[in-house]
Write a structure and sequence with these properties.
By secondary structure, the protein is of the alpha+beta class. The chain has four helices and 15 strands. It has one domain: Creatine Amidinohydrolase (Alpha-Beta Complex), CATH 3.90.230.
Length: 257
């Protein structure tokens, strides 16, 4: 992978606006995530919202990917392709992942949603995945090692008897969809590059109920499922390293202020 890009103030402003729009997509769609809705409909609502706000969805056509979002249900870890045939039912958990391009700048975020009443085990893995993201974000500050993000995520997930997906990771973002550095969600303590102000990247831990390994559907070449069919959950934000810590660029509800 190429060198890590330290963004200028002008670039940061552009990435911030794109990230804000990506975050707004996830707030907007929440009321439509309910039993009987299909994931193709949710995808189309988000694509319309993105385009109405003067942006484009980064995933459409990316390496042949056909849709504006990734929507991953239950045992699907990531890259689930939305479809009108995929109808939500009571008890489902799902991740919706959105990446926007606004004025040439990228923002990337995802979160979990629940359909009606979910099981206790589903509730626990969703809560754990969110806490893993929060722990990772707390490691973001100048002078810290990038690997400490994955170290604390892996340690916490293991303490809760979950596994961390290693086949997919976070990444630098902002001027391109995928930039350096690679952000692993399980890593050795004090490993990797040193964090510097102006770096922008995603933290997006994928937490599995069973084994960490995944398998990709041969039918579409994208949908990645847990290898044992057990549940998976994921949350994601785009983060800026600031002179004194971090800014969560895709946080539009003020959770990290």
């Amino acid at each position: 992978m190429s060198e890590i890009i330290i963004k200028s103030q002008e670039q940061i402003a552009g990435i911030r606006q794109s990230s804000k729009l990506a975050g707004q997509c996830l707030v907007m769609i929440e009321e439509f995530v309910k039993e009987g809705a299909n994931t193709g409909f949710l995808n189309d609502k988000i694509e319309e919202f993105i385009r109405d706000n003067g942006a484009i969805p980064a995933t459409v056509g990316y390496n042949g990917y056909p849709k504006a979002t990734c929507i991953s249900l239950n045992e699907v870890v990531c890259h689930g392709i939305p479809s009108s045939k995929q109808v939500l039912k009571e008890g489902d958990i799902l991740n919706i992942d959105v990446t926007t391009i606004l004025n040439g700048y990228f923002g990337d975020t995802s979160r979990m949603y629940s359909v009606g009443q979910i099981s206790g085990k589903a509730e626990r893995i969703v809560k754990t995945a969110k806490h893993c993201l929060d722990l990772g974000i707390q490691q973001v500050k100048p002078g810290n090692y990038l690997g400490n993000i994955g170290f604390v995520i892996g340690r916490y997930a293991k303490s809760k008897k979950y596994s961390v997906v290693y086949e997919f990771c976070g990444h630098g973002i902002g001027l391109e969809f995928h930039e350096a550095p690679q952000v692993d969600h399980i890593a050795r303590k004090n490993s990797g590059p040193i964090l510097q102000p102006g770096m922008t990247f995603t933290i997006e831990p994928m937490i599995n109920e069973g084994r960490a390994s995944t398998r990709v559907d041969k039918s579409d070449g994208w949908t990645a499922r847990t290898s044992d069919g057990k549940l998976s959950a994921q949350f994601e934000h785009t983060i800026l390293v600031t002179p004194d810590g971090y800014e969560v660029l895709t946080d539009v509800i003020g959770e990290y202020n």
